[in-house]
Amino acid sequence: MSETNFRVMLEKMDLHEIEQLKLAKEALTWLDGRRRALQEQIAAVDVQIEEIKAGRLDPGSVLPRSETAAPVKTATRQRRKQEGTLASRVAEVLRGKESGMGIQEIAKAILDAGYATKAKDFRQHVAVVLGKMDEVERLEYGVYRLKAVP
């Protein structure tokens, strides 16, 4: 195509059409590269097929590990049995503490009593539970106690 024809064609196109052409060219280039890579893989597979048919290649060497080995049955994970919910543990710890306790103190007391957790920030879990418990009242920032029973 001559330079003059190219300029005439470009002058008739808007910016969006030019961008679409550029994007189409990039996509076609990428797809051509992908096609070449896949054709190389197919050629390698064809060679392996011929090698297996001729008896020069062990069929097990081309299979993924999961298909060659017998399936392994995994044991189902058993959940740990907890004695009560975290909320019930919070209530136990706060029972009898008229002056209240801080969140860190509550969390430590629960863990010291044997509560098992995998939480990275157990104190945060305790804070969330405290906020949802109707029987707990906040005395001041970070300090809680059980409400008095009427």
Helix content: 55-70%
User: Nearest-angstrom radius of gyration?
Assistant: 35 Å
Counting H and I runs of at least 4 residues, what is the number of helices? 6
Number of domains: 2
Number of strands: 3
Features:
elongated; single chain; mainly alpha; Arc Repressor Mutant, subunit A; 6 helices; 150 residues
3D structure, described in words:
This protein is mainly alpha-helical and 150 residues long. The chain folds into 2 domains: 3-67; 86-146, Arc Repressor Mutant, subunit A. It contains 6 helices and 3 strands, in the order H-H-H-H-E-H-H-E-E. It has helices at residues 3-12, 15-53, 65-68, 86-94, 103-112, 122-132; strands at 101-102, 136-140, 143-146. It has a 3-stranded antiparallel β-sheet. Helix 4 (86-94) crosses helix 5 (103-112) and helix 5 crosses helix 6. The longest helix is centred in the N-terminal third of the chain and has 39 residues, at 15-53. The radius of gyration is 35 Å and the shape is elongated. The termini are far apart.
Quick summary of this structure?
By secondary structure, this protein is mostly helical.
What order do the helices and strands come in, and which of them pair?
Elements: H1 3-12, H2 15-53, H3 65-68, H4 86-94, E1 101-102, H5 103-112, H6 122-132, E2 136-140, E3 143-146
Antiparallel strand pairs: 1-3, 2-3
